[in-house]
């Protein structure tokens, strides 16, 4: 039985008027009448006596029998709901860049919440440097970043790797496969992911030429692919995100393979072995592996 129906019935019993019961529940009189009718239909009995011209109702014998049952039912419902407040919830505070959040964590975290009703996440978006600071200052339990850095009492663990893929505007004039020298830095939407990527990038394109745009994150790249020559290198999960959300992009194959971006988990040494963090790491690795298996970027 729906608790909402039982509550409405008891309010009608309390006030002896449907209109006052409805007012106490902040619903219309018609809504209260409909709930009462639904209850009578579900039980197959008449619960109140309605007399034309008389606003005050009286209970039938069935209605009188239902009152203590309804009261007990609602009491049990409140006790069950109270168990939720007493539950041993465990919250994981996560620091992440916006691109890791949108393209990776958004696929990893919801299934974890479905599997564990007591699990809660608190997600904080930050730059890669700030993610390490958040972990270092115990403001988050775990960070996720494309940048690996060595710090005292900080433990890093490689969750996996993100390949970089070349994307352009959908009507670009580039062939499906091309070499780096076919791309001009003047047309690039550039994101300096980490030192390893920047060193490789400098070998392919001279850094003395300014890019079309330099962004802190890959999340906004499609907005900057403003011409048929604009291009960018983005993590494959980000490219998948763009396609899934109907961003207009074209994915090409760059013959010079960019270095993969390491996806790093960052924790304090005293938290690295906690069950919640270990489970998050294992599930993140599994989800990332599956994501790579499912894509068809070649």
From TrEMBL:
Top-level lineage group: Bacteria
Q: Which UniProt keywords apply?
A: DNA-binding, Transcription, Transcription regulation
Any GO molecular function? transcription cis-regulatory region binding
Keyword Transcription regulation recorded:
yes
Check the record and name the InterPro entries matching this protein: LysR_HTH_N, LysR_subst-bd, WH-like_DNA-bd_sf, WH_DNA-bd_sf
Transcription regulation: present as a keyword of the record? yes
Q: Which PANTHER family match?
A: HTH-TYPE TRANSCRIPTIONAL REGULATOR, TRANSCRIPTIONAL REGULATOR-RELATED
Report the sequence similarity comment from the record. Belongs to the LysR transcriptional regulatory family.
Kindly provide the name given to this protein in its UniProt entry: Transcription regulator
Q: Which organism is it from?
A: Levilactobacillus brevis
């Amino acid at each position: 039985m729906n608790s909402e129906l039982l509550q409405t019935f008891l309010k009608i019993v309390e006030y002896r008027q449907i209109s006052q019961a409805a007012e106490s529940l902040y619903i219309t009189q018609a809504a209260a009448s409909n709930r009462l009718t639904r209850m009578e239909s579900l039980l197959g009995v008449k619960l109140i006596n309605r007399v034309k011209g008389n606003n005050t109702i009286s209970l039938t014998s069935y209605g009188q029998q239902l009152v203590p049952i309804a009261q007990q039912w609602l009491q049990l419902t409140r006790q069950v709901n109270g168990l939720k407040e007493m539950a041993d919830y465990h919250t994981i505070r996560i620091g992440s860049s916006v691109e890791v959040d949108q393209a990776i964590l958004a696929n990893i975290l919801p299934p974890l919440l479905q599997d564990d009703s007591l699990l809660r996440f608190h997600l904080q978006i930050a730059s890669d440097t700030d993610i390490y600071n958040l972990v270092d200052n115990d403001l988050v339990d775990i960070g996720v970043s494309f940048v690996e850095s060595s710090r005292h009492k900080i433990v890093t663990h490689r969750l996996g790797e993100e390949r970089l893929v070349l994307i352009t505007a959908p009507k670009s004039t580039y062939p499906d496969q091309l070499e780096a020298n076919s791309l001009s830095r003047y047309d690039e939407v550039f994101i300096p992911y980490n030192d390893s990527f920047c060193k490789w990038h400098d070998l392919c394109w001279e850094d003395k030429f300014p890019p079309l745009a330099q962004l802190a994150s890959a999340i906004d790249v499609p907005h900057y692919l403003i011409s048929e020559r604009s291009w960018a290198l983005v993590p494959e999960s980000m490219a998948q995100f763009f396609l899934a959300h109907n961003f207009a992009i074209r994915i090409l194959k760059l013959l010079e393979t960019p270095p993969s971006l390491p996806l790093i988990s960052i924790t304090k040494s005293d938290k690295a072995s906690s069950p919640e963090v270990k489970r998050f790491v294992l599930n993140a690795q599994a989800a990332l592996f599956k994501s790579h298996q499912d894509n068809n970027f070649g």
